[in-house]
Design goal:
Blueprint: E1 5-8, H1 18-29, E2 37-41, H2 58-70, E3 74-78, H3 88-94, E4 97-98, E5 102-107, E6 110-115, H4 125-134, H5 137-144, H6 148-168, H7 178-187, E7 192-195, E8 202-208, E9 211-217, E10 227-232, E11 235-240
Parallel strand pairs: 1-2, 2-3, 3-4, 6-7, 7-9
Antiparallel strand pairs: 1-10, 5-6, 8-9, 10-11
Amino acid sequence: MEKETIFISDLHISLNKKEITKKFLLFLENQARQANAIYILGDLFDAWIGDDDNTPPNKQIKTQLKLLTDSGVSVFLQQGNRDFLIGDQFCTETGITLLDDYAVIKLNGVNTLLTHGDLLCTDDLPYQAFREKSRTEEWKQNVLSKPLLIRLLAARWYRFRSFFHKRKKSQDIMDVNQQTVIDEMKKHDCYRLIHGHTHRPFIHNLEIKGKPALRFVLAEWKKDSVEILRWNAKGYKIENI
């Protein structure tokens, strides 16, 4: 079988999403083993409160990721808006490589920009303000210094609050800003962009510096629908597994 690169995002794995956890573990044991590289573009977990959290299903996920990377498959991860506290300990335990918020890779000879997607949603000003604050070392250390139980309770509260905040926002505000997309693709000299976050899977055609460009939006994993983006020497394929 021809080796390939696979892109996924927005699994939002948690204790109460057992079907998603099961599908991801099956993916790690099957399709992922046939790939050269796996790119997880953010929000692998619905919430990540620190690398010391081994409550179910976190420990099992880490164990299976380590088995995959030990088999020779390279796994790369970008932090999402839900799991941006993933750190060095998690990488050591799983063998994955953590990527910056924006990363450029060569895909079939074409510079391809990877990002979770939340940085592209620049119309959502309250979120961008929180994002900037929460990525500071001071803020993260303040959170991680709290006892695990307190962090677990806080994560539950923030998920609850986030649900109601989203209901008050327009769908357009929570989508990417087209000019921001173009600006970032120009900045990184890329004519192909792959991201998640918005839960609006689609392939968008656009123009960068007078040349055609593509923006791939990855799908959120659901219990009845799991999509992956496969890429090999012949091109790409979006597959529901």
